[in-house]
Amino acid sequence: MASNTKNTNPKDAIGSTKLPFHLVPSALRIFAAIGLLEGACKYGGHNYRAMGVRASIYYDAIQRHLESYWNGEDADPDTGIPHLASVAAGLAILLDAMVNDKLTDDRPPRAPVGALIRELNKEVPRIKELFKEHSPKHFTIKDE
């Protein structure tokens, strides 16, 4: 990674301590923009900020788009909008609603899922070691 400062520019010392927007890939902003355009055309621009949102509605929509994408459908057949663009737009709206106090947090009661994941992650190396002599074929979308 590049150096945080440059001797010839005193602004570098201050600028390098701030959020590094240059690390956000342009593709994320571009896909989020097309996903947000779809929503603006359907529901009105920035409706989520004016009206607020329920976490469960956006969580469900994001999950539906992720499942469709993961199972080989790149774009919504009705709109042609890439599913991952809709995911990016949904996440942007959830974050915006959270920051602007427009989020109705209807998630279920807390559960120690993060701790469970971290605990089971410790089992992964053991399981891989147990089957290290096996060479199963792992099928992908290219195997259709």
Please give a structural write-up:
It is built from seven helices and two strands. With 144 residues, the chain is mainly α. The chain has a domain at 24-109. α2 crosses α5 (83-99) and α4 (55-70) packs antiparallel against α5 (83-99). The longest helix is centred in the N-terminal third of the chain and has 18 residues, at 26-43. Helices cover 53% and strands 3% of the residues. It is extended. The chain has a two-stranded parallel sheet with strand order 1-2.
Q: Can you give me a brief rundown of this structure?
A:
It is built from seven helices and two strands. The protein is mostly helical.
Q: Which helices and strands occur, and which strands form pairs?
A:
Layout: H1 11-15, H2 26-43, H3 47-51, E1 53-54, H4 55-70, H5 83-99, E2 103-104, H6 113-121, H7 124-130
Helix pairs in contact: 2-5, 4-5
List the main descriptive attributes of the protein structure presented here.
mainly alpha, two-stranded parallel ribbon, 7 helices
